[in-house]
Records
---
Amino acid sequence: MPEQLLQQIVNGLLIGFMYSLIAIGLTLIWGVMNIVNFAHGEFLMIGMFTSFWLFSVYGLDPLFSIPICFLLLFVMGMFIYRFIVSKVMKGPMLAQLVVTFGVSIFLSNLAVYLWTPDFRLIPPTILQGTWEFGELNLSIPKTVASIGSIITSVCLFLFLRKSKTGKAILATEMDREAALLMGINTERINSLSFGIGAALVGVAGAFLSTYYYIYPQVGGLFGLIAFSIVALGGFGSIEGAFIAGVLVGLAQTLGGFFFDPAYKYAIVFMIYLITIWIRPQGLLGW
Amino acid sequence: MKAKSWITICLSMSLLLVFSGPVLAQGVIKIGGVYPLSGNIASTGLDCKRGVDLAVDIINGKYGKELDLPMAKTGGLPNLGGAKLEVVYADTKGEPKNGMSETERLVTQEKVVAIIGAYQSSVTKTASQATERLKVPYVCSDSSSPTLTERGFKYFFRVSPHDAIFAKDWFQFLKDVEKKTGKKVATVAILYENTEFGSNVGKYARKYAEEFGYKVVADISYAANATDVTSEVGNLIKSRPDVLMHASYITDAILFTKTFKEMGFAPKGILTMAGYIEPGYLPAVRADGNNIIVRSTFALDLGKKKPLVTKVSQLFKKKYGIDMSENAARSFMAPFVLADAFNRAKSTNSEAVVKALLETNISANQVIYPWKGIKFDPQSHQNIYAQGGLVQVQNEQYVTVWPFASAAKDVVWPFPGWKGKKK
Amino acid sequence: MKSLSLKQITVGLAVLVLLLIFPLVVTQIFPLQVMILVFMYAMLGVAWNIMGGYAGMFSFGQAAFFGIGAYTSSFLLMTFHVNPWIGLIAGGLVAALVAAAIGYPCSNLRGHYFAIASIAFAEIVRVHFNNWTLVNAAEGISLPMLDESFINFMFHNSKVPYYYIMLAFLILALVVCYFVATSKMGYYFRAIRESHDVAEVLGVNVVRYRLIAIMISAFLSAMAGTFYAQYVLYIDPESVMLLAISIQIVLLSMLGGAGSIMGPVIGAAVLIPIAEVTRVWLGHRGTGVDMLIYGFLITIISVYQPQGVWGLLSRIGNRIK
């Protein structure tokens, strides 16, 4: 096996699982209510800052702040849905596209105002170091984050398929009118889904903060990549987003390794375009 | 268009008219400071502002009267009736078009007589194009693109060293350290972020590698805000360089340091620029930064050989509560150069000031850097005495290690590897 | 779309006269600079509107065309000393061609898919230009300083000629938009916007009209790009191809009222001065308060007045009748 190839594949998977975790929340929101949440990256940023402040002020290890990030972002998501997004649901498509942009600009600059534009990093805590398997170096924080992503995705999957609320969410995703006719309170489902979507990316933020630097605009690139992933996987499909996340992680790393690191993200976007041309509904979308 | 809409437009326009009418105070010389005070790079912009503000305080005699800096003893400009200096700041948000418009606004509306700034070379480019059009002097001490002094501009002067000088320093250091330790270096890898700053460094690094006789085994450019850099580091590991040369901003410096450690990339030497000396870098990476070498024009331990440095940094710490950083130190010098020129010209008239700037000859013991002084080349207007130095992180502190003659401590060479990595 | 009423024409002419004499009355640089930016962004908004507001293709990648226009003319000027006015046309053509090339495979993408595809496209273009040595990659192009003249499309001593040129460009864009909106093509565009499939069933050649809309939009955006290059005299991928520019174009068009001719103009007239003024006023304290207000405004507008200011004014206008 060519040198570094295994290492790069592993790294591609590790970043891919993180992307997946970020993307499943976005695809849930899209699937249920047809809104692309352009503020998704900012939710990630808030998750990261929450984890950071809990650590700085209370010394709480980021792993333990996961539930707090989940709850905080859940409440925030529901709030934003109820008071902002729900009001544009009946409006023109453009308003729906733009309103989350407004929220995104507001949130990232609120972060600048409150916390300054400086870069923060959480120093290594419980999770630190690298596992070595021969030639292979496995970053512990990234591996834990990947495991966390898989567990979270499985939990979401089970929730959607097994619980009553979850099934209601899926029903609304598939056919809104039919769901209404079946007596499902679609407004409540919307609100819940937005909250869960935000909570999921909040958890991603907590994991990401264990190894990536934190600052108000950090959501930008992650958000963009997430849109690509969601579209690639098919808007609304959790499984699709999960797989697409891993694929994009691999593409980015291997593309950067074999081709040209400067074009890494161009490759990611190119994949999106090609998929969309050949198969517009994405890999697993409907 | 409906009537109401042109009312809206008129209202907006009248808002603008409010922002006119400068006020010229008596005995005050206004210069414009153009910096990124908001946006991504705001923390650096604010850092530069601290350096400028301290300089202006010293020039105006607020403190530092005992220092051997231009105008410090007199408090104000003696040849202009003790006039004080005032800086009017403008926020560029880091965008070149704002560099141009803010400079124009400062000159034509606020009536500043000179401009300093703008840290980012792309913004300095447009800002200085504006000053060249408006025929106003521009003294830059914090932008490092070599192209700035290759344009043949009449009104633009640069005090600090530029990236070609810094790149050359890297190689000069390699030659020196080979001689000192007897350990040969044959190959280098060049790694740089892909905006103007990094690509320029990459260009000059390639040039000097050839001149100095080193083989370039990897030449990698990347996006500074990357989410992950494992592919770049993978390529570096594959190429097995003796020495790595890295031009980065702070975010990529942090990410790469962590990834180097994670993937076990440990060449014989890591030589870096810019991002590794930003105030946020060491607090973020802590001990992982140890033994990395960074180019610098300023380090606190210069004070050992130059007491002025210690005195100035103490003043800085007293005023702001934090140590003086390299950015603040670089921006610190421009107001002095201007004050000195205004004073000798006995005027703020552009032509007179430019003439005075060309005659600038500030001596070595009046600058807080390891330079022989400040004197501008008559053609390019680059300070011919500007040079860089190298510092190394030792015990999470920056220590001057090169030139060896002004070093505070010996350089640790080769790079001893990463601590506490394995599990 | 009704043709213009006498009242509208009178008001329009009055405003035009005001704009024409503005630089003779207000001579300070800052207001002139802001007005020039307003005109430029208004033009970009009008260009966007043709494909977005009218044909329903919400592009978040207009900066790519803006940048292609700027780079084409600047590159031709720098390397082959081609006159910038010719470069202007060349830039427009190149942008239109690229638009067609990307528009064709995207011709059956809808709504959000199209929006994200446009972002993907623009980012690919930006990354490419950032690494393309032919155009100096990340270093950007510093336009050679030519002698000041209209032929050279460069003025050093005053902003006023730039003001009039940009105003003329804007009026040109508005005229194009007017013709598009009131012609049969405009009806086809709106049909496509309302429902792709229905339009197709009714015999509208959806692909062809989508391509036309994109190409016109690209051409006009590229013109604005060339203007920018001649005005600021330095371009690099970060300053002309940034996603933030594309987003701003959409936001101001929406604020003013997408789908109406004057909508983007109003949007630009309101948003740009606010952005510039709050930056001068508040920005230098380094706390991003100006963008905070901006984001807040956008959100509020989307929620409470999605038809934009134009929609608001129309409602008031109707009630007054």
Note: Chain A touches chain B at residues 3-4, 7-8, 11-12, 15, 112, 116-121, 123, 129-132, 137, 139-140, 211-213, 215, 217, 220-222, 225, 252-257, 261-262, 264-265 (CB under 8 Å).
---
Amino acid sequence: MTGDSVAQLSVAVEAVLGAFTLQASLEVGGEPLALVGPNGSGKTSLLLTILGLRRPERGRIVLCDEVLFDAALAIDRPTEERHLAYLPQDFGLFPHLSVIDNVVFALACRSQRASAKQRRDEAMTWLERFGIGRLASRNTAQLSGGERQRIALARALASSPKALLLDEPTASLDVEARVEVRAFLAESIRSLGLPTILVTHDAKDVEALASRVAVLEKGRVAGCGLLGDIRQNPPTSFASKLLESSRVAGASEIAGPFCTGDACHN
Amino acid sequence: MAHARSRRLYDTAMVGLGGILLLFLVLPFVALVLDGGPSAILRGLGCSLTWPALRLSLGTTLISVVLVVVGGTPLAWWLARSRWRSARWLEILLQLPVVIPPAVGGIALLLAFGRRGLFGGALERLGWTPAFSAVAVVMAQVFVSAPFYLQAAVQAFGRLDPNLLAVARSLGASPPRLLFRVALPLARPWLIGGAAMSWARALGEFGATLMFAGNMTGKTQTLPLAIYTALELDIHTAQALSLLLVSFAFALLLLLRRFNRDPEVARRLATP
């Protein structure tokens, strides 16, 4: 894969959830990976585990040669030191801060030495890069879904992350905003080239944002591979139903490595 | 038809019941304000008990509420986030003073820290005898009022959107930054509400103070104790002191309403 040599997030974890054990192994390079599966299949738990908000019983998580978690070596880096950008479904903007102060917050977390003025200028640069400089002094509650999404991404990138984790990025938007946000996200994810994991229920999100798909079923990776392969040969009935609608659209995919079982490697 | 009639009867009965309760609650206040007229009340305020008690009440409750907030906030933050089973038990045990009669709390404090108490000897050797001093007043107030703030703060922190905290941490927020820049500003309206409740409780503290700190004018005699003392001298003095206390309570109530009506509060609530 082209992007894999640039940056890599590798996850192999085992964690006891309520009804079953999450046992997942994923490798993410420069190509965005969509994590799909029915409700309760462990998608969000896996995301929280990578973030360090849930501690797995066994396993290892490595990001760009840095070990974030290793049960055997008793390494467990706290969330704030993992350099992962996390975008939750509702974008997680701080309601007590203005748009620009949301971005300044991220900058202040990473660079203690910069002056307040420097941080504001840098935050403004981020906002302008996403075409939302005019919103700088606004209250985040008054903004549209599309604008909120942009702020969230600008803020996430201001923290200089090494990987991107998105949880249902379009689920809380109305239909029109979805189209806009999807196009914007697709463009951003492509140009960033960061390892990206995207949890979604929406075939259109998978189609537009991801090149690879991992199908989760009862905590296990039932199948993982290029979007085109998964679509042609869905490992579970859920994947078949989810990607059915987009079957006609995605003929441009090139055939690539494909695997089933617990592991997914390129 | 019969259904509508019984429904109407039920409504009427409840309105009546509510009215009776309202009268029962309001009439004493009417009497408190009107009885004797302004001149009797003004004369009461001029009593020698008033100003020392007012000064002591304001001073000690202010110290108490600061102690409770400064100590209670980090503790509540930890309690709200800890997954330990022992944290749940600690939370329940810390609520005990709410259900214990204050007089019992006062006796317990006396038996623990009084001159002849369990730890009184050790404290005395260190040159410190808290019982029957202003320090004892503060101790009694903290004892009875801390749980009110703690409960409000634990609930406030527990209601914060976990996604916001997760995002803050993913952006690199250290634990202190997470508390001071995210959790505290978001929970502020409820923390202030809790502190006001706690202050009101400390201001009204009587039983524990009487048992543990005594009733010495200018030294340990807070407003509620002064009211008790004044009652034996002249009812209008007691009335005047009571009005003073009521006006403070009313001011607090207004403050609470001000914060609960804050439109920001709705936005700061956890979103499902």
Note: Chain A touches chain B through 31 residues (CB under 8 Å).
